[in-house]
Structure formats: C-alpha cells, structure tokens
Amino acid sequence: MMHIQHQFRASYNPKLHLLAEGPQSYRVRAGCFVNDARFVTLERDEGHVTQNNGVMVKGLGFNYYGVLVSVIKLIYGKGMPVVLFKCKCFNTDPTRRRSIIMDCGLLSVN
C-alpha cells in the first residue's frame, strides 16, 4: 500500500487507504443518526404510534421506496465509521401495473 501511496501521490486518498485495510469492528443496531436524521428499523418501530422506518432513494426515471431492516456500523482505522442500511425495497417501476398509486395526494406503494 505504501508503494501505491508514493507512486500515485497526487491521487492518493488516506480515507480510501483506511477502507482498503478493512473494518476493525462492526455493530448491528436497531437505529442510528445520520446528518441529524434518525433512522430506525421496521422491527424497532413495531408497536410504536409514530413510524420512522421508511426510506426513499432517488433514481433515474423513478424512485426506490422501502423499509429499513437493519443498520450495520463498520468502524475502520482511526475510528472512521461507515453506516450501511439493509432495506426491503418495493417495486416502483412505473411500467408495472398498480406498483405505485397517487391517492388523495399521497403516494401509495403496493
């Protein structure tokens, strides 16, 4: 790795170096905060009056909707965290009949 660091000094990225060394530890959680937004898993939300397990990712052509199943926090060198979300996604392909419906101004994903 040090050879690459010296050979490609202009494009060397220390964070990428830490990722290449692999995680030092990990934790599986029922939720987390990312950029001041709280994310919790579907299982954690069951039985609660308010729900906060839905996720949406903008795509090209249409968006992806789903629910959060688990949160995995990987810890790399120098304490650098990387948070992974495992989601159950719904088919929102607009060419598929009845995949998404606008109902009274609300998006319904079936």
Quick take:
With 110 residues, this protein is an alpha+beta fold. The protein is built from three helices and eight strands. Strands 1, 4, 5 and 6 form a four-stranded antiparallel beta sheet that branches. It has a two-stranded antiparallel ribbon with strand order 2-3. It has a two-stranded antiparallel ribbon with strand order 7-8.
Task: Write up this protein.
With 110 residues, the chain is α+β, with helices and mostly antiparallel strands. 15% of the residues lie in helices and 43% in strands. It has 3 helices and 8 strands; from the N terminus they run H-H-E-E-E-H-E-E-E-E-E. The protein has helices spanning 2-7, 14-20, 42-45, and strands at 25-29, 31-34, 37-40, 54-57, 64-75, 81-90, 100-103, 106-109. A hairpin with a 2-residue loop joins strand 2 and strand 3 (37-40). The model has no long low-confidence stretch (mean pLDDT 84).
What is the mean pLDDT? 84
Distance between the termini: 48 Å
Structural class, by secondary structure, is alpha+beta
How many β-strand runs? Answer: 8
Assign an overall shape: elongated
- The helix tally amounts to 3
Q: How much helix is in the residues?
A: 10-25%
From the alpha-carbon coordinates, what is the Rg to the nearest angstrom? 19 Å
DSSP strand (E) fraction? 35-45%
Order of helices and strands: HHEEEHEEEEE
Q: Would you identify the regions where 5 or more consecutive residues have pLDDT less than 50?
A: none
Q: Biggest sheet: strands, sense, closure?
A: 4 strands, antiparallel
